[in-house]
Design a protein that fits this description.
This protein is an alpha+beta fold. It has six helices and two strands; from the N terminus they run αββααααα. Strands 1-2 form a two-stranded antiparallel ribbon. It is flat and about 75 Å long. It starts with a helix and ends with a helix.
Length: about 180
């Protein structure tokens, strides 16, 4: 009697080495060829064996943080924060009349004015920091699109310029 596993054609790959020579370098590759599973071997066992043979990609924790890596992550995160806040407020503003809420400019200004000074300064610093960093780093990317400052030295120069401009703009927008 043929088992269900054999009828459905469970296959496992056997690795057959294939050696090819290209130029002066030898390249070694493996060709996966199908091979019928035994009746006792289940699909879960085949999947487990395949999972063990698969290479694991490295995690970000093994890399030393570099300026380009950190600024890239910050650019993405500030973009998500700015866009998310804008979408959320727009959606709330659209739904507010249905819920009987007032999100007009007078109400928003009076709510912000009622906040304690440390909370107000913290919110202003957070919002202006995200906006200014994302803006200046976006300009940096546009400059890169022209083909300028794409060397290692140029990346560091523009990175420090973005950090400096962000600090100045955040300070100005927070306190004035």
């Amino acid at each position: 009697m043929i088992s269900a596993g054999t009828r459905t054609g469970l296959l496992k790959a056997s690795r057959i080495p294939l050696q090819r020579t290209i130029g002066a370098k030898g390249v070694r590759a493996f060709i996966a060829t199908p091979k019928r599973c035994t009746e006792e071997e289940s699909q879960a066992a085949v999947a487990e064996r395949a999972r063990k043979n698969r290479p694991v990609s490295p995690n970000l924790g093994i890399y030393k943080p570099q300026m380009s890596m950190v600024l890239s992550a910050l650019h993405r995160n500030t973009g998500v924060a700015v866009a998310g806040a804008a979408y959320l407020y727009t959606a709330a503003f659209g739904v507010a009349p249905l819920l009987g809420l007032d999100l007009g400019s007078v109400t928003a200004a009076s709510t912000v004015a009622a906040l304690p000074i440390p909370v107000l300064l913290g919110l202003k610093a957070l919002i202006s920091g995200c906006l200014s960093f994302h803006c200046f780093n976006g300009i940096r990317h546009l400059v890169w699109d022209t083909g300028k400052y794409v060397s290692n030295q140029g990346v560091f120069k523009t990175g420090y310029a973005v950090i400096g401009a962000t600090a100045l703009a955040t300070g100005y927008l927070t306190f004035f």
